[in-house]
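ZP: hey, is the nicotinamide-adenine-dinucleotide complex queued? I don't see it on the tracker
AM: it wasn't, my bad. submitting now with these inputs:
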Amino acid sequence: MLSFDPDNLSFCTGNYIDGKHIPSNNNQIQVHRPSDGKAYALIPESGIEGVTQAVETAEAKRISSGWSSCSPRQRGAILRRWADLIEEDAVYLGQLEALGSTRPITDVINHEIPFTAEAIRFYAECADKYSGDLLPTRKNSLGMLIPEPYGVVGAITPWNFPLSMASWKCGPALAAGNAVVLKPSELTPFSTLRFAELAVKAGLPTGVLNIVQGSGLRTGSELVKHPLIRKVSFTGSTVTGAQIMSDAGFYGMKPVTLELGGKSPQLVFNDAGNPVDIAQRIARGFIANGGQACVAGTRLIVQRAIAPALLEQLILLCQQCRPGYTWLENSRYSPLIDSRQGNKVQRLIQQSCVEGAEVLAGGKRFEHTEEGWFWQPTLLINVGEDNCAVQEEIFGPVLTVQYFDEIDEGIALAQHDTYGLCAGVHTQSLTTAMRSMQSLNAGTVWVNRYGRSGDFIIPTGGFMGSGIGKDLGRQAFQACQRQKSVLIDF
Ligand code: NAD
């Protein structure tokens, strides 16, 4: 039985520094449960002192504990133990995640926890698999390129997948020998504390992974600017990413990995296959986690002949979604994170209709859920390219529908002026698939599927306004190391 009582869960709420939970008498930020809007805890708004304590401890401990200098294999062993402990702790860790985030408990236990543990395992394997290079030079010289950790990595994560986002940041950075100070979203701050505690239990030296709580404008910004932060790894919105890139440049020219927003197209050609199957793929792509996924495929670009059958199926799938508290085992459909997000979704749909859109399904909030914002999966037709629902990342379960006749017209509609995160292409024609894949401005193209697999080797990251650099894959590990060129004459 996975259901649990949300009022009966105890957990720590402050910062986690040097292996200790630091209670705060500066608790200023109220945290709400997305499912029913109830305020259930407070977190501190860490300022310069809290951030400095976390960062200085991380820098001191990564050196004194030998974390940065020990054999990579030793690091890998600790990370593997950490992954095992995450899985063993699935029930409690999963409850913390389901309590405070938009992820229903069954989803968390079946997907989020194993996915988080596997990401850590993947980077444990990377720890001793990548070397530097010997460079050809004169006979009496030795040229080398030696990778080394940056030092302390500042990691900042969003609220939509708190645990897996934390694992994507901490896994590669720690495996490469860095220390990490992580600031989780102030909307979903608690599961990450347990995640860090388990790392220490697994043998990670205390102080090498610290968590600071607080808002982005105060705590996140202080973290990016701290002089001992040598690299910044951020996932969140494009607007915040731009601010972070600017701060990282101004305060120490720090390299950044930025995983940002998206407005990804799902391009369906007449020869895609059975509309029933295609509709399921499309629906999962924009409904999962209430549409609150950076990779959500929220723009359906559909060739004319297959459109009626596909839309008929999509309407049915939208109507099957039922809201349910995230702490109940049978719940499958996610709430929006909070009323601010709810109001944003509502406002953009209204504006889209003012601009000419028509609601084909959904278009409003589910009625029976107190303060929780469960939004009905929504289909919008009659949207032109300039319609706000086509242009803006709504971050809710809203799919716009645009039609095309010729392949090139479809590809042109799929391109977005701002974002280039992902794209789905659905066709049985190899030629159409390859032409689309080559033309699309997207960091990831999925053909005849939509969404990530469990292959951690496949990196994720966007083009243009969707970001810089990659999470996952070897690329994320290598981005956590700087390269030192060495020339020795003998
Ligand atoms: P957000 O940008 O508002 O906040 C993300 C994090 O940044 C939070 O921890 C926040 O406190 C912090 N922050 C805010 N302002 C800051 C500042 N000036 N300096 C430092 N830190 C700051 O994003 P969100 O609303 O939490 O998350 C949703 C967004 O994240 C969406 O745009 C979504 O597409 C994006 N996202 C992208 C990916 C990806 O892999 N590309 C994955 C998940 C989410």
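AM: back. The first strand starts at residue 15 and ends at 17.
ZP: great, adding it to the tracker
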